[in-house]
Design goal:
The protein is of the alpha+beta class. The chain is about 45% helix and about 15% strand. The protein has 8 helices and 6 strands; from the N terminus they run αββββαββαααααα. Strands 1, 2, 3, 4, 5 and 6 form a 6-stranded antiparallel β-sheet that branches. The radius of gyration is 20 Å and the shape is elongated. The N and C termini lie far apart (about 65 Å). InterPro entries: DUF4304 (IPR025412). This is DUF4304 domain-containing protein. It comes from Mesorhizobium japonicum R7A.
Length: about 230
């Protein structure tokens, strides 16, 4: 008997998981593969990832990611000179990083005898972790007020938190958010030296949190006295 192709197992599982989320308004797109729901300007997306190291009959990995998008924040980026290319993406991450303590969460759906139990477990985790994360954006100003003074799962990079707070509440609250993160840097002096004696271009990049916060401070004129 031929073993099931890992790619087909993965896609079938994605489809089944998405079908169990239809009552919450999600629709499956095989081309993603992902399941999405729209509410006004907001788009909530559950994306699925597998692994090129899958082995038929032994290991078929499934990872769940969640992302929140809003087209209005791209317009805000471009209008206000945010130091990165305009983007609809706001927040998100793989399911294990949407709760604390953070960890990388995967499921193995290779075994047909346990596959349905694994799929049920994935759906349960989406319902208890991802959907509540999405619901928080139903009150964006309240979420921004929390972000201005604390860490919220889904905003793993400080500049993303500062951006959301600035968009929702303005520069004073964004500076409070920046102050929260600067106080938690391994060396706040790195932030200050980069901010005050710039050596890198004023664009966000794959650098340290200190470097990127400094770039935001310089370009958006906040946190200049921290």
């Amino acid at each position: 008997m031929d073993k099931e192709p890992p790619r087909q197992i993965f896609l079938d599982a994605c489809c089944e998981i998405s079908s169990r989320l239809e009552s919450a308004g999600f629709r499956f797109a095989k081309s993603g593969p992902h399941a999405s729901r729209r509410a006004g300007d907001w788009t909530f997306r559950i994306s699925f990832q597998s692994n090129y190291l899958n082995v038929s009959g032994e290991y078929v990995e499934l990872v769940v990611h969640a992302s929140v998008y809003n087209k209005a924040i791209r317009e805000w980026d471009e209008r206000n000179g945010w130091p990165a290319n305009g983007s609809d993406w706001i927040a998100g991450g793989q399911l294990g990083n949407l709760r604390t303590p953070y960890h990388w969460r995967t499921w193995n759906i290779a075994n047909p005898l346990t596959r349905q139990a694994e799929i049920a477990n994935i759906v349960a985790n989406v319902q208890t972790t991802v959907l509540p994360f999405f619901e928080r954006f139903g009150a964006p100003r309240e979420l921004a007020e929390e972000l201005a003074h604390s860490e919220v799962p889904g905003f793993m990079f400080p500049q993303n938190a500062v951006r959301f707070v600035f968009w929702q509440l303005g520069p004073e609250a964004a500076e409070n958010c920046m102050s929260y993160w600067v106080a938690r840097l391994p060396s706040p002096d790195v932030f200050r030296s980069e901010r005050d004696v710039p050596t890198l271009r004023d664009r966000l990049a794959a650098g340290s949190d200190a470097n990127n916060l400094a770039r935001v401070a310089r370009t958006m004129k906040i946190g200049l006295s921290l």
